[in-house]
Amino acid sequence: MPAIFLAHGAPPLLDDELWMRELAEWSRSLPRPRSILMISAHWEEQPATCSNPAGAPLVYDFSGFDEKYYQVQYPAPGAAALSARVQTLLRCESSTRGLDHGAWVPLIPMYPAADIPVLQLSLPTLEPGPLFELGRALAPLRDEGVLIVGSGFLTHNLRTLDRSPRPVTPGWARDFDAWTAEALLELEFDALLDYRARAPGVALALPTHEHFVPLFATLGASAEGELPAFPIEGWYLGSLTKRSVQFG
Protein backbone atom coordinates (compact mmCIF):
# COMPACT_ATOMS: atom_id res chain seq x y z
CA MET A 1 0.00 0.00 0.00
CA PRO A 2 1.09 3.60 -0.43
CA ALA A 3 1.86 5.86 2.50
CA ILE A 4 0.15 9.24 2.16
CA PHE A 5 -0.19 12.68 3.71
CA LEU A 6 -3.37 14.63 3.03
CA ALA A 7 -4.77 18.06 3.74
CA HIS A 8 -7.99 17.36 5.59
CA GLY A 9 -9.92 20.60 5.99
CA ALA A 10 -12.53 21.47 8.58
CA PRO A 11 -16.07 20.03 8.31
CA PRO A 12 -17.17 22.63 5.69
CA LEU A 13 -14.84 20.75 3.33
CA LEU A 14 -17.77 18.34 2.98
CA ASP A 15 -19.56 21.10 1.02
CA ASP A 16 -16.59 21.84 -1.25
CA GLU A 17 -17.47 19.95 -4.44
CA LEU A 18 -14.04 20.30 -6.04
CA TRP A 19 -12.05 19.12 -3.03
CA MET A 20 -14.47 16.27 -2.35
CA ARG A 21 -14.12 15.16 -5.95
CA GLU A 22 -10.33 15.36 -5.78
CA LEU A 23 -10.22 13.20 -2.66
CA ALA A 24 -12.64 10.68 -4.18
CA GLU A 25 -10.63 10.44 -7.40
CA TRP A 26 -7.42 9.99 -5.43
CA SER A 27 -8.84 7.11 -3.42
CA ARG A 28 -10.05 5.39 -6.59
CA SER A 29 -6.49 5.44 -7.90
CA LEU A 30 -5.19 3.63 -4.81
CA PRO A 31 -5.28 -0.12 -4.14
CA ARG A 32 -8.14 -0.96 -1.81
CA PRO A 33 -6.78 -1.11 1.74
CA ARG A 34 -7.54 -3.92 4.14
CA SER A 35 -7.54 -1.31 6.89
CA ILE A 36 -6.54 2.32 7.43
CA LEU A 37 -4.25 3.84 10.06
CA MET A 38 -4.85 7.58 10.54
CA ILE A 39 -2.39 9.91 12.25
CA SER A 40 -4.21 13.22 12.61
CA ALA A 41 -3.12 16.68 13.69
CA HIS A 42 -5.99 16.75 16.17
CA TRP A 43 -4.92 14.11 18.66
CA GLU A 44 -1.80 14.72 20.71
CA GLU A 45 -1.26 12.16 23.44
CA GLN A 46 1.86 10.63 24.93
CA PRO A 47 2.75 7.81 24.74
CA ALA A 48 1.41 6.86 21.32
CA THR A 49 -2.16 5.69 21.82
CA CYS A 50 -4.61 3.85 19.57
CA SER A 51 -8.26 4.78 19.25
CA ASN A 52 -10.97 2.37 20.37
CA PRO A 53 -10.23 -0.89 18.50
CA ALA A 54 -13.92 -1.80 18.55
CA GLY A 55 -14.93 1.49 16.94
CA ALA A 56 -16.52 4.38 18.78
CA PRO A 57 -18.70 7.44 18.16
CA LEU A 58 -17.00 10.19 16.22
CA VAL A 59 -15.26 13.04 18.02
CA TYR A 60 -16.74 16.42 17.03
CA ASP A 61 -13.63 18.36 17.98
CA PHE A 62 -14.67 21.77 16.65
CA SER A 63 -17.01 24.61 17.51
CA GLY A 64 -18.94 27.37 15.82
CA PHE A 65 -20.03 25.41 12.75
CA ASP A 66 -23.48 24.60 11.42
CA GLU A 67 -25.37 22.04 13.49
CA LYS A 68 -25.47 19.63 10.54
CA TYR A 69 -21.77 18.88 10.97
CA TYR A 70 -22.43 17.56 14.47
CA GLN A 71 -24.85 15.02 13.03
CA VAL A 72 -22.38 13.49 10.55
CA GLN A 73 -21.77 9.78 11.02
CA TYR A 74 -19.00 7.52 9.72
CA PRO A 75 -19.64 4.04 11.13
CA ALA A 76 -16.40 2.37 10.03
CA PRO A 77 -15.81 -1.15 11.36
CA GLY A 78 -13.59 -1.60 14.37
CA ALA A 79 -9.94 -2.36 13.77
CA ALA A 80 -9.05 -4.77 16.56
CA ALA A 81 -6.58 -6.73 14.44
CA LEU A 82 -4.79 -3.58 13.32
CA SER A 83 -4.72 -2.24 16.88
CA ALA A 84 -3.09 -5.44 18.11
CA ARG A 85 -0.56 -5.30 15.27
CA VAL A 86 0.31 -1.65 15.93
CA GLN A 87 0.84 -2.47 19.58
CA THR A 88 3.38 -5.12 18.57
CA LEU A 89 5.28 -2.55 16.48
CA LEU A 90 5.15 0.32 18.98
CA ARG A 91 5.06 0.75 22.71
CA CYS A 92 1.57 2.15 22.70
CA GLU A 93 -1.69 1.96 24.55
CA SER A 94 -5.33 1.63 23.60
CA SER A 95 -8.16 4.01 24.48
CA THR A 96 -11.90 4.47 24.17
CA ARG A 97 -11.54 7.48 21.87
CA GLY A 98 -13.30 7.71 18.51
CA LEU A 99 -12.13 9.26 15.22
CA ASP A 100 -11.67 13.04 15.14
CA HIS A 101 -12.47 15.29 12.18
CA GLY A 102 -8.90 15.02 10.88
CA ALA A 103 -9.78 11.38 10.21
CA TRP A 104 -13.45 11.26 9.32
CA VAL A 105 -13.72 14.38 7.16
CA PRO A 106 -11.34 13.07 4.44
CA LEU A 107 -12.55 9.49 4.83
CA ILE A 108 -16.12 10.45 3.89
CA PRO A 109 -15.25 11.36 0.28
CA MET A 110 -12.44 8.81 -0.02
CA TYR A 111 -14.25 5.75 1.35
CA PRO A 112 -17.91 6.78 1.58
CA ALA A 113 -19.21 3.24 2.21
CA ALA A 114 -17.43 3.26 5.60
CA ASP A 115 -16.70 -0.44 5.12
CA ILE A 116 -12.95 -0.46 5.82
CA PRO A 117 -11.66 -0.82 9.40
CA VAL A 118 -10.11 2.44 10.62
CA LEU A 119 -7.75 2.97 13.55
CA GLN A 120 -6.39 6.32 14.68
CA LEU A 121 -3.00 6.76 16.32
CA SER A 122 -2.15 9.78 18.45
CA LEU A 123 0.77 12.13 17.89
CA PRO A 124 3.04 11.31 20.86
CA THR A 125 5.24 14.34 20.09
CA LEU A 126 5.52 17.26 17.68
CA GLU A 127 9.23 16.64 17.10
CA PRO A 128 10.05 15.56 13.52
CA GLY A 129 12.75 13.01 14.33
CA PRO A 130 10.73 10.79 16.66
CA LEU A 131 7.72 10.94 14.32
CA PHE A 132 9.94 9.90 11.42
CA GLU A 133 11.11 6.92 13.49
CA LEU A 134 7.50 6.13 14.39
CA GLY A 135 6.72 5.99 10.67
CA ARG A 136 9.67 3.68 10.09
CA ALA A 137 8.36 1.35 12.78
CA LEU A 138 4.94 1.31 11.12
CA ALA A 139 6.30 0.75 7.59
CA PRO A 140 5.80 -3.05 7.63
CA LEU A 141 2.05 -2.43 7.71
CA ARG A 142 2.22 -1.30 4.09
CA ASP A 143 3.01 -4.87 3.05
CA GLU A 144 0.01 -6.04 5.08
CA GLY A 145 -2.57 -4.00 3.18
CA VAL A 146 -2.70 -1.06 5.58
CA LEU A 147 -3.00 2.47 4.20
CA ILE A 148 -0.92 4.74 6.46
CA VAL A 149 -2.32 8.28 6.42
CA GLY A 150 -0.82 11.42 7.90
CA SER A 151 -3.58 14.03 8.08
CA GLY A 152 -2.93 17.75 8.51
CA PHE A 153 -1.95 20.77 6.40
CA LEU A 154 1.44 21.82 5.03
CA THR A 155 0.48 25.43 5.84
CA HIS A 156 -1.92 26.28 8.65
CA ASN A 157 -2.36 29.87 9.74
CA LEU A 158 -6.04 30.43 10.48
CA ARG A 159 -5.51 34.12 11.17
CA THR A 160 -4.67 34.75 7.51
CA LEU A 161 -7.62 33.05 5.80
CA ASP A 162 -9.10 34.99 2.89
CA ARG A 163 -12.85 34.36 2.59
CA SER A 164 -13.38 36.81 -0.27
CA PRO A 165 -14.79 35.58 -3.61
CA ARG A 166 -11.28 35.66 -5.10
CA PRO A 167 -8.89 34.73 -2.29
CA VAL A 168 -5.26 35.73 -2.67
CA THR A 169 -2.42 33.43 -1.67
CA PRO A 170 0.32 35.36 0.16
CA GLY A 171 3.93 35.04 -0.91
CA TRP A 172 5.09 33.42 2.33
CA ALA A 173 2.57 30.61 1.85
CA ARG A 174 3.69 30.01 -1.73
CA ASP A 175 7.34 30.07 -0.67
CA PHE A 176 6.85 27.58 2.14
CA ASP A 177 4.75 25.26 -0.01
CA ALA A 178 7.27 25.38 -2.87
CA TRP A 179 10.20 24.74 -0.52
CA THR A 180 8.45 21.73 1.00
CA ALA A 181 7.51 20.32 -2.39
CA GLU A 182 11.07 20.66 -3.70
CA ALA A 183 12.56 19.08 -0.58
CA LEU A 184 10.16 16.16 -0.91
CA LEU A 185 10.91 15.66 -4.62
CA GLU A 186 14.65 15.76 -3.94
CA LEU A 187 14.23 13.42 -0.94
CA GLU A 188 16.03 15.98 1.22
CA PHE A 189 14.81 14.47 4.45
CA ASP A 190 17.54 16.15 6.53
CA ALA A 191 16.28 19.55 5.36
CA LEU A 192 12.69 18.61 6.06
CA LEU A 193 13.55 17.36 9.53
CA ASP A 194 15.16 20.76 10.16
CA TYR A 195 12.30 22.71 8.53
CA ARG A 196 11.83 25.05 11.50
CA ALA A 197 15.28 26.52 10.82
CA ARG A 198 15.50 26.14 7.04
CA ALA A 199 12.07 26.66 5.49
CA PRO A 200 11.15 30.17 4.29
CA GLY A 201 8.15 31.78 5.92
CA VAL A 202 7.80 29.06 8.54
CA ALA A 203 6.70 31.43 11.32
CA LEU A 204 3.73 32.59 9.24
CA ALA A 205 3.02 29.25 7.57
CA LEU A 206 2.94 27.39 10.88
CA PRO A 207 2.21 29.45 14.02
CA THR A 208 1.80 26.00 15.57
CA HIS A 209 3.19 22.77 14.14
CA GLU A 210 0.68 20.00 14.78
CA HIS A 211 -0.74 20.14 11.24
CA PHE A 212 2.64 19.80 9.52
CA VAL A 213 4.30 17.09 11.59
CA PRO A 214 2.07 14.13 10.60
CA LEU A 215 4.02 14.40 7.34
CA PHE A 216 7.03 12.90 9.14
CA ALA A 217 5.18 9.69 9.95
CA THR A 218 4.40 9.37 6.25
CA LEU A 219 8.04 10.10 5.36
CA GLY A 220 9.24 7.48 7.80
CA ALA A 221 6.90 4.90 6.33
CA SER A 222 8.22 5.53 2.81
CA ALA A 223 10.79 3.18 1.32
CA GLU A 224 14.35 4.31 0.67
CA GLY A 225 14.52 6.16 -2.64
CA GLU A 226 10.74 6.08 -3.11
CA LEU A 227 9.77 9.27 -4.95
CA PRO A 228 6.62 11.18 -3.97
CA ALA A 229 3.70 12.32 -6.08
CA PHE A 230 1.32 15.19 -5.35
CA PRO A 231 -2.18 13.89 -6.17
CA ILE A 232 -3.87 17.11 -5.00
CA GLU A 233 -2.49 20.64 -5.24
CA GLY A 234 -3.97 24.12 -5.06
CA TRP A 235 -5.10 26.54 -2.38
CA TYR A 236 -8.02 26.89 0.01
CA LEU A 237 -9.08 30.22 1.53
CA GLY A 238 -5.92 31.81 0.23
CA SER A 239 -3.18 30.59 2.54
CA LEU A 240 -3.98 26.89 3.10
CA THR A 241 -2.18 24.65 0.63
CA LYS A 242 -4.13 21.55 -0.40
CA ARG A 243 -0.90 19.81 -1.43
CA SER A 244 -1.12 16.14 -0.57
CA VAL A 245 1.69 13.60 -0.84
CA GLN A 246 1.81 9.97 -1.90
CA PHE A 247 4.69 7.53 -1.62
CA GLY A 248 4.19 4.32 -3.53
Provide an overview of this structure.
The chain is an alpha/beta fold. It has 9 helices and 10 strands. The chain has helices at residues 17-29, 80-89, 101-110, 128-138, 171-185, 189-193, 195-198, 202-205, 214-221; strands at 3-7, 35-40, 49-50, 93-94, 118-120, 146-152, 228-229, 235-236, 240-241, 245-247. It has a 6-stranded mixed beta sheet, with helices on both faces. The longest helix has 15 residues, at 171-185. The radius of gyration is 17 Å and the shape is globular. It starts with a strand and ends with a strand. 42% of the residues are buried.
Short description:
The chain is of the alpha/beta class and 248 residues long.
**CATH level-4 homologous superfamily:** LigB-like
Strand content: 5-15%
Average pLDDT works out at 97
Strand count, sense and barrel status of the largest sheet are: 6 strands, mixed
The sequence of SSEs as H and E is EHEEHEHEHEHHHHHEEEE
What is the architecture at the second tier of CATH? 3-Layer(aba) Sandwich
Classify the fold: give the CATH topology.
Answer: Protocatechuate 4,5-dioxygenase, Chain B
Q: What's the quaternary structure here?
A: single chain
Count helical runs: 9
- The separation of the N and C termini measures 7 Å
Number of strands: 10
Which regions have little confidence, pLDDT < 50, spanning 5+ residues?
none
